[in-house]
Amino acid sequence: MCQAFGSLRVMMRVEGIVPILVGNAGCVYGLDFVSHFYAARKSVLTPVYTAADLTNGRIEDRTRAAVAETIAQFNPRVIALITLCNEETVGLAIDAIAKDYAARAKDDPTFPLVVPMHVPGYGVKSHAEAKDIAASQLLKCLIERDGVPPRQSDAASTIGEVFPADPLYLEQLLAKMGIRLVAHIPSRTLSDFRKVLGVSVNVTLHPFYVKTCALLAKHKIPSMGCTPVGVEGTRTWIERIGRAFNVNPARIEELADTESRAVATVFARTPIRGRILIAGYEGSELMVARLLVEAGAEVPYVSTNIGQTPFTKEDEAWLAARGTTVVFRKTFDQDVIAVDELKPDLVLGTTALAAYAKERGIPSMYFTNIFASRPLFLAQGAQTIAELVNQAIGRRAAYQILTDFFAAVEEESTPATAL
Ligand code: SF4
Question: Residue 21: helix, strand or coil by DSSP?
């Protein structure tokens, strides 16, 4: 999938934002198609231009005209102006276009904010990192126009696309320490993005929001990178955020103990037995691997499309200490070799890898869909994932029957060699 989809997906979901994709017709068609496959409820706009316009400079005129027309027709609150490979290569100046509108947006809060986003596939290495570009650019432009709101000493925010129930669990847990979870982004509302700028501590639930966290750090909002996944992760998360808000140590210890014990009870009741290979592209693969290892699984290999970040270090070290090979910026071939060599009982992979494993009679599931549609945090997440993974491993015999069946059909349909 084109990496730019990460930015487009985040922007398509926010009410009041209209995306303009400046790209080759084929690229725009693919991105538009995928966005509607994921149930986008708005249109993607794009300037129409020819190949000659790219070289003679008229691409800038066409883009400016598309922005002006979008404002005239829709007057959205924000225009996400997204450039793709060809337009980046010819140096289309979307920052200059956005700047021309910025002064007017500053004077008139009802005038649309134009937010430039550069996401060429050759420069942005993963779909996940394109989400970070979208979130950070939107926050940056909001700060430039509106400034930073007053800091709320008891407020926290979270960043990361997670199952909708997970932020609610975290909100309830934080409330027990007197901390208010006031915003979770990427969300459907612009006001959530604004609220993040007024918190005391931000928590990144996915490790690739590096640009967003750097922007917040510039405005003295620190970001915490740990997640409440598994026994140790849950304990560490509660301890760190409690200390960050100067919560009474006894209260922190009490909650950390209760919540981490609840996860341990799930693993004792629902242990996972089997060798599991994890190969996604989302950036959340490492924390899932930790959860499975704590539940008793053997996880010899984890791969992801994102690169190493300051927020991946801890999980990488934890997994390496338990014998797991962690591969960043992986290729499909590396994943295939891992399946062939490690002979797992279950593959949680990309669609292509899951198909490859199924053809060999290995139970497999598409990582992204599985973990985007279920809770992952605290005891609720542990329970859901442990049950799901055990069911999947238990289907091995059924996969083998299917593999044998098709092997027999193929053998029968192969003409006998004439003697
Ligand atoms: S990576 Fe570049 S060329 Fe490929 S679809 Fe995306 S924008 Fe188009």
Answer: strand
